[in-house]
Amino acid sequence: MTLLAVQLLNGFQLGMLLFLVAAGLTLVFGVMNFVNLAHGVQYMLGAYLGVTCASLAGGFWLGLLLAAMAAGAFGLALEWLIFRHLYARSDLDQVLATFGIIVTLNEAVRLLWGSAPLELPMPDLLSGSFMLMDGLRYPVYRIAITAVGLLVGLALAFLVNRTRAGMLIRAGASNPDMVNALGVDIRRLFRLVFGIGAMLAGFAGVLAAPLVSVEPGMGENVLILAFVVIVIGGIGSIRGAFIAAILVGLVDTVGRTMITDLSHAVLSGQAASRLGPALASMLIYLVMAAVLAWRPAGLFPART
Question: Is 10 exposed, middle or buried (0-12, 13-18, 19+ CB in 10 A)?
């Protein structure tokens, strides 16, 4: 039960990080109909910028703010220089171009920061732990990440569903030509969506930096999980991304532990050692396949 409690909390924390990445990706994919494989690079850049900005600013909090803003600005620069020329192109062109950006930026990171992993110290305010149960303490920082994810989810839901900008975003997703004909600069609207997505991904990278090694290529695995999240939740749906991110986080963390333990209870030691980790790594994709077979548009598809 102690292990289960820890894995449940870890699953929620992973789910909130995935939501921060997937929320921007689902908006870009759903509103702009743009396949952006380079979204994971924004997560990586956020982590690197967080390390650099925290070192220059002399503290985690100011570094977090500066890194998130810098990641958003870099995303806007990419959109203006490259991505806006790809909106009218085919999905294959978008995939190839954004994959090229992944390779280029990974090498640029190696050139600027080196290949050795970097670390970002936790803020002193959140470096402690609290008593979860007898003999077990849980880090405060992980709880803080979960709380931040919940607050960002509420803020995004309010932005999309209760503001004029959100109304225009939803209208642009349904019929961009009509919105443009009514006098709204659809390019500027799309640029706003892209900037929000890039800033959220960079923000997630800074939050994750104290927990993981900051290294080139760290955004690829997160990107794959983010795509799983938006496929399960429904493309373009913030609510779907939120619920699916929690589901994927729980399945990934709890499933890896429980599947391995169950395989040892059923099979011999050597066979269980091979089968358990293999099934655990496949579990979230099996869940995605089941959701696609049941609801091809996802659990909570965006209304259009």
Answer: buried
Tokens of 302: 């965006």
Give the Cα separation of 296 and 33 in Å (integer): 17
Find out whether 257 and 10 touch, Cβ atoms under 8 Å: no
Q: Does residue 244 contact residue 232 with C-beta atoms inside 8 Å?
A: yes
pLDDT in tens, 184-230: 888 888 888 888 889 999 999 999 999 998 999 999 889 999 999 99
- Please choose, from the candidates 67, 27, 25, 30, the residue with its C-alpha nearest in 3D space to the C-alpha of residue 50: 67
> For residue 211, with 0-12 CB atoms within 10 Å meaning exposed, 13-18 middle and 19 or more buried, which class applies?
middle
Task: State the CATH number of the domain containing residue 100.
Answer: 1.10.3470
pLDDT tens figures, 125-181: 888 887 777 767 888 999 999 999 999 989 988 988 888 888 888 887 778 788 888
Determine the Cα–Cα distance for residues 256 and 281; give it in Å rounded to an integer: 7
Q: Is residue 44 part of a domain?
A: yes
Q: Is residue 102 part of a domain?
A: yes
Q: What is the dihedral of CA 61, 220, 11, 269, to 10 degrees?
A: -140
3-state secondary structure 70-103: HHHHHHHHHHHHCHHHCCCCCHHHHHHHHHHHHH
Position 304 in a domain? no
Q: Are 41 and 105 in contact (CB under 8 A)?
A: yes
Q: Which two tokens stand for residue 267?
A: 């099979």
User: What is the number of domains present in the chain?
Assistant: 1
Phi, psi of 88 (to 5 degrees): -90, 0
Residue reference for tokens 């099996």? 286
Note down the domain range covering 135. 2-294
Residue 299: inside a domain: no
- Through-space distance between the first and last CA atoms of the chain, rounded to whole angstroms: 44
